[in-house]
Amino acid sequence: MRIASNFFICSYTALLFTACSKGGGSSPVDTLPVVTINSLSQDRTLTTSNFHFTVSLDKAATSDAIVHYATLPATAEENKDYKPVSGSLTIAAGQKQASFDVEVTGDSIRKENQFFYVQLSDPKNCKLGAAAKGSGNILNENGLYFPVDNTGYSTPDSYPGYTLTWSDEFNGNSINSADWTFEQGNNNGWGNAELENYTNRTQNAFVSSGNLVIEARKETYQTSDYTSARMITKNKKIFTYGRVDIRAKLPKGKGVWPALWMLGNNIDAVNWPACGEIDIMELLGQEPNKMYGTLHWGADYTVHQSKGNNYVLSSGSFDEQFHVYSMEWKQDTIKLYVDDVQYLTVTKTDLTGSDYPFNKDFFFIFNIAVGGNWPGSPDSNTSFPQRMVVDYVRVFQ
After folding, report:
1. In angstroms, rounded to a whole number, what is the distance separating the alpha carbons of residues 12 and 18?
2. What is the pTM of this model?
3. Hey, which family's this protein in (predicted)?
4. Is the same domain home to 38 and 186?
5. What's the total number of domains in the chain?
6. What pLDDT sits at residue 354?
7. pLDDT score at 369
8. pLDDT 10s digits, 185-207
9. Are 69 and 37 in contact (CB under 8 A)?
10. Is residue 69 a part of any domain in this protein?
11. Residues carrying an active site annotation
C-alpha cells in the first residue's frame, strides 16, 4: 500500500507539471533572445546629422520582439546638442536587427566632446542584455571654429621709416601653403628628445576667426603619444634685417614647449648651429609667466654658443591674453622685445671664435613641442589639448 501511494503521488505531480508547461504562454526567459544597443562616435558637422543606432538580438526571434528606447542627457544637452527621441522598436520574427536615428545639431566650434545616452527598456519576447544602454559620442574636438578672447597687447601695422614687407594675418579659410610648409614626424626627437609627432592635419593646425591655432594633443599617433604641428617658411618667406612682430597667446603645462623662432635658410648646407638660430620666444609650460629669447651660433655642435635672457610678467601669465614678441634686426645687432619692452641685445662682438651668421636670410618656425630635454615630460597635472594662438606675424623692412 505504501509503494502504491507513493507512485500515485509522483504520477500526479508529473501530470500537473506537464499540463502547466503546455498551451499558448510565452517562452521561458532563459530561451529568449538577448537585446542590446550599440554606441556611436561621430564628428559633429556644420549641418544637422543623424546618429544611426542599431538594436540587435543575439539570435533571431521566433515572434516579434519589441523594446522601448529613449534618449537621456549627459554632457550633451537636449534640444541644444541633440533632439530627444523615444518610442518602441519592433524586430520582426526571423530578424535580428532594427534601427532608429537621433538628430544631432550642426556646429563647428572646437571644444570638448559631448555625449548622450540611449536606454532600452520594457522588452517583450526578448530580454535586456548587459549592453542595454548605449551612448552617442559627439566629437567636437575637430571643429574648425575656435573663438578666442582678443584681449592683450597690440602693435601698429606701420612704423616710420619701415615698409611692411610681408605679413600673415591668418584671415583666410586655411593655412597658406604658398608661405608655410609642415614638417612632420618625430625625427628622432628633433635633437631634443621631444615626444610629439608633428602632423599636417587640421586637428593640429588650422585658422579660425583671423588666428592661427597650433594644437598639441595627447593621443596615440604612429609611434608617439602626442601630436602637434610645426610650420616653417623655409625657401618660401625668408628675410634679412627688419622689425618682426608676432602677436600670440601661449599654452601652459609641464612638458609643453611653444616656440616662435628662426633658422638660417642655409641650414642644409652648413648645418646647425652654423646656420644660426634666433629664438624670438620660447616658454616652458611649467613657468607660464616667464618666456625666453636666445640666439645660438657656432661652427658645429661641439663649439655651440648662445646668449639669451628671459622676461617675466609682473602679473598674470602668457596664456591669459595676447602679447607681442618682437625683434629689431640690423646688421651685426639684434634686439628682442616683449610688448615693446627690450630685454635682450646681441651684437657681433658677443661672438668669439665663430663667424657671425645673423647677416643672412632666415626663415620662421612656429611650433609646440611636447617633452624634451629642457622642459621635461608632461605630468599628471598637464592638461591637453594645449594651444598656441597666433594673431599675426609681420615683417617690416
Report:
1. 10
2. 0.88
3. Belongs to the glycosyl hydrolase 16 family.
4. no
5. 2
6. 85
7. 99
8. 999 999 999 999 999 999 999 99
9. yes
10. yes
11. 277, 282
Which of 276, 394, 297, 397 lies closest to 352, judged by CA? Answer: 297
**26 falls in which pLDDT band (50, 70, 90)?**
low
Same domain for 86 and 221, yes or no, is no
Residue type, 303: V
CB atoms within 10 A of CB 46: 11
Cβ contact 218:225 at 8 Å:
yes
CA distance 211 to 229: 15
What does the alpha-carbon distance between residue 215 and residue 212 come to, in Å, rounded to a whole number?
Answer: 10
SS3 labels along 100-121: EEEEECCCCECCCCEEEEEEEE
pLDDT in tens, 225-234: 999 999 999 9
Per-residue pLDDT tens digits for 357-382: 999 999 999 999 999 999 999 999 99
Q: How far is 114 from 135, CA to CA, in rounded Å? A: 10
Q: Please give the Cα distance from 254 to 388 (Å, whole number).
A: 15
| CATH code of the domain in which 75 resides | 2.60.40.2030
CA nearest to 338, candidates 320, 321, 325, 328? 325
Residue 147: is its pLDDT beyond 50?
A: yes
Q: Residue 382 CA to chain centroid, in angstroms?
A: 14
Indicate whether 106 and 203 sit together in one domain. no
390 Cβ neighbours under 8 A, 6+ residues apart: 170, 211, 212, 213, 214, 246, 247, 248, 260, 366
